[in-house]
Amino acid sequence: MSLETPEKFTPKPEYFKGSQWELPTDIDLVNRVSEELERRLIEAGWGDDAYPLVTSFSEALINAIVHGNLEIKEKSETESWREAALRVQKEKPSTKKVFVNLNVTPEEVAINIRDEGNGFAVKEVTDPTSGEGISRTSGRGFLFMHQDFDSVEHNERGNEVTMKKTKQKTA
């Protein structure tokens, strides 16, 4: 047990059986869940291409927990999103789940993440590369997802994202 992750947040092995995961709303699971995806990507032969995919996955998972299930819209300037999530988890524990579906093959990766939150208007997210977006502390995950995956689609409600990547053929 590490000092950073209290024992009650240790992920259960059954969380990662198969390709459909049902996860509790717990920001402390993000690293362990991401490590499991990375393990599967490497086993499937994605090598160095695994890291950016895992980073984007982590961002999408954090969004589902923080903004989706915990409904955190803003935080103080001195607080990280993780700290805000830990605070809210303590103040108002959530029974909502995050659902992850994976399809990892040597040729393609497809990831679907759905939370039980109210969703958001995808079209209203500020471009993090715009003048206004550069100074904001949120929105960068969207940039990563669109850079690292071939396609990124959200459902109409805004509580589900599907990301797909096809491995480039080498000559």
What does this protein look like?
The structure is a single chain. It contains five helices and five strands. The chain is α+β, with helices and mostly antiparallel strands and 171 residues long. It has a single domain (17-166), classed as Heat Shock Protein 90 (2-Layer Sandwich), CATH 3.30.565. The chain has a five-stranded antiparallel sheet with strand order 1-2-3-5-4, with helices on one face. β2 and β3 form a beta hairpin.
Which descriptors would you attach to this protein?
171 residues, alpha+beta, Heat Shock Protein 90, 5-stranded antiparallel beta sheet, 5 strands, globular
List the helices and strands and how they pair.
Blueprint: E1 20-24, H1 30-43, H2 50-69, H3 81-91, E2 97-104, E3 108-115, H4 131-134, H5 140-148, E4 151-154, E5 160-166
Antiparallel strand pairs: 1-2, 2-3, 3-5, 4-5
Helix pairs in contact: 1-2, 2-5
Question: Can you give me a brief rundown of this structure?
Answer:
By secondary structure, this protein is an alpha+beta fold.
